[in-house]
Amino acid sequence: MVLVVGISACGPAKFVEPLKKFENAIAIDVGGPMVTIPDVASMPIPFSSITYGHGWSDKLTLHGSWYTTAAIFGVAQIGAGATYGVWKSKRQKHGISAMLGFNTAFDVYEKNFKFWPQLDAHYYFKYNYKGEQQEDLLTKNGRKRSNLLYVGVGTWYELEGVKAHGEKQQDIVVPMLNIGHDLNWKKWTLKTEVKLIAPFSSNENIVLDYVSLTGDKGSTGVYLGLIRKF
Question: DSSP string covering 18-55, please?
């Protein structure tokens, strides 16, 4: 079912603000949709991924991800994309970016292959922002520099018109809404994000007991990430 796959496979936003030209970054993320474990608690599934990003230019960042938890269960899942800085305010405190990418998954046991295109857009706002010369002084010795708040919308696309049991595919587009925060130091970033995944699709009568802010629709994802720039 596309809802199960879409909820389980997605991760946090990648490089909402593009990297600088020739800048590189490694990101480690953990988290996933909230589920209820009977007689235990409600908690996010601890999916994990490793992402590498490269600033092709000041506006364009290319990135690729390897989903490490999926690999443990015999699924080779990778994702790749390009984030483009569409607009920045004059003082660069506000910005809009868009990401075009894809995710693939190959089950080595069942020999099944899936491919999902992805399109995201984000608005971000910097606070504790200083001018370039002042910021250089503030970021010496790893002290914090301007932090980032962002909100966005994302979409995954299901290309197969038929489900596993020959039923017609109804969920062609899997939408997502997210809000996040980047706590920045000179070379390190601590990322937190909350995501509403498939908020208009029913989450009843499926494999996992998903927890959602929208009740019986979709799931709420919680993510934590650490980024090292170099």
Answer: PPPTT-EEEEEEEEEEEEEETTTEEEE---EEEEEEEE
Average pLDDT, the chain: 85
Q: Which domain holds residue 59?
A: 2-229
| Lookup: tokens for 226 | 């650490």
Number of separate domains in the chain: 1
**Residue 57 Cα distances to 40, 52, 83, 86, angstroms:** 48, 15, 11, 13
What is the secondary structure of 41-92 as a DSSP string?
Answer: EEEE---EEEEEEEESSSSEEEEEEE-HHHHHTTEEEEEEEEEEEEEE-TTS
| pLDDT score for 129 | 60
| Residue 225, strand partner residues | 29, 191
- CATH of residue 190's domain is 2.40.230
DSSP string, 143-183: ----EEEEEEEEEEE---SB-TTSPBP---EEEEEEEEEEE
Global pTM?
A: 0.87
Separation of CA 203 from chain center: 21
Q: Is the pLDDT of residue 60 over 90?
A: yes
CA-CA distance, 120 to 193, in Å (whole number)? 15
